Amino acid sequence: MSKREDVAAPAVQPHEVTFGIMTALPVELGALIEIVDDVRTYKDYDDPNDYRLGRIPSGLPGQFHSVVLLMPPRDGTQLAATCCAHMLRTFPNIQTVIMTGIAGGIPRPRQPGKHVRLGDIVVAHEGIVNYGNVRREDGSARLRGRQGAGLIAPRLLQAMNELRMAAFDGDRRWERWLDPARSAKFPRPRRETDVLYTRGLVTEHPPLPDSDTPEDMPRVHYGVIGSADTLMADEVFRDALADEFPDMFAVEMEGSGVAAGTSLIGKDWFMVRGVADYSERTGKQDTWHRYASYAAAAYVRVLLETAPPVNDTARPQKLSSRPLVGADDQKALDAILRDVPSDLDIEPVWQQTMRSDVAPDAEQSPAEPPNAPAEAFHRLAGRNAGASGLNPAIAFLARLGEVLRLFDADLAHRLDTWITGYTKNAGVGEALRERLRSGSDGGPAGPVAGPALVIEMEVCGIDREEIRVTSRIQDRAGPWHPRPLRVERVRRQQIEDEVSESIARAEQEWARLRTAGEADIEFVLPCGLMNLPVQWYRALRMGVPRPIGVRYPVAVRSQERMRESSVRREWATRWSHLDRDPFDGQVQWGTRYQSPPASLNWWSSGLSGDNRYVVVVLSESPDTELGLRELFAALEAGVPVILWDQRSPHQGAGATDEMRRLASAPPDLPARMRALRVDAAQHDADPHHSGRSVALLWDDPNRVVGAGGEGS
């Protein structure tokens, strides 16, 4: 009897399902439908996913596995994690999530025994490597290694070993499903369409190993599969992965999200993929998609046919509680979280939420931090709230919004709007706001930043003309931890060239890492160099020199204060006023602006005695004695924002009027300052434009570098 003739079989019930099988593309789902018995559609209206339920015979005669098939609307690790979380809530008795479909192969033509061909099958029995998840420490980058090895389904590993032993005797059971008479909808393409390219040139395949698989059947490779949220079409990077992981045979785009997403609730996973291309651009085409999808599905079929049934679902179990948010709200949230840059490091936000808003539970072991915001949300949604009483998933989103605000205000606003709507409907809006205002338990975990280049200068010894320039780079949005980029000693007249070279090196790194978001440039300067016109230094891009203050937000910072811990507390206290809405800080104008002009002692004492002073406007530039003394007094008091006219002596009312306008909205100063410099560059015929001479010290106490600070 064919599998289609068993029409009298009762429909599978949700509580009976023990295996979830996920795939990403319609052709992959079609291949699964061909190998699963008694397939029927299923819809739960509290769940946005669409499902198909069916059966596959088990390793015990007369008993079956009940399975659910799921295809997310798009590929990618984040959406896969989201859809998987929905599936596990709707089908609470699922024990294992199987991922199958196509993948890009990693060929090794110089190693015939490990060489992958199109149509081959890859089984991730040694785990997954998330090759998009890089940790940077002490100036070096490394992948965070394999994930989920301890959560690979034991019963399927045992079944896999049975299949491998049978294959040694020539019994490759999956091949019966690949017989051309049985798989007419998924034919194997002609051999000549399997073309391997090396650096754009056709490369011969090595001969098949002796006593191995017939040429018209796929070989099965057992090892590691790479996973990331990026479509791989990079031959050089592919080969670098092959060198680092000798047992990696393929790469794909969903596995790491699903594998990590199942771990927290005690589920396991398994992955089988069919090779459809060679992960490079020259030969990439769709010819092998259908066959590779079907080959992987055939292996999954015989794997489940070999595995014993799961026997702990004889009676319906209590279904899990309703999802934290409704289907429409979840779709809106998923759309926002998909736009979060894939290179954003969310681990510190996750760790702070776990410490502050998740109830301790001895039965739940610590989990590997998630790779994507959607994955983090769904993993936290199943956790009990800690002392705050707030659901930790919502607290996580609020902290994530604080991080996003640093480099993508529009995306942060979209997330804030979603949170506001949810918390209003749930009646917890005020509780969430109070939680995020509560000191160490609120806000993102630790200092965070977007990409940045920090250039520190100091005079070398007694030769006042020799300057040591130290550059550090913040690779991407995430915790503040800039790493060394370059250190050079130059003459004063060479500083601009060195700055241009440091910017070029930083842009190369950001391009290599595919870093997203606007990059800041910060100059850490001693008081003696504070008046350098660094914002007007020119850097080359495509051979065109342009002032860096036009291309980037540029600010200067105090080297002396950064190295002095005694002022750190007061500095941070004053800085906190900039985050308050409405702004409640004050602006102090220099002694010459007072009426009548004040003494420096009276002025500096008042400044130190009132921590509401957040901004100081100097009477003169730091190149003068008065300007330098006012600057030092403001730094010693912990004032984080300082403005001045760089010309000595002070030149007329134009710059003063502009500084009054700038100082009227201190939280917006960096953006206003850049706009002013762009306007000055556009009116280059006006040498007295105030944008040419107004300087900004914008000194964040959370972004310390050098001696005693991060990034040292």
UniProtKB/TrEMBL annotation:
Q: What is this protein called?
A: Nucleoside phosphorylase domain-containing protein
Q: Name one Pfam family in it.
A: VMAP-C
**Which part of the chain is the vWA-MoxR associated protein middle region domain?**
327-435
- The record places domain Nucleoside phosphorylase at 19-285
The vWA-MoxR associated protein C-terminal domain extends over 469-701
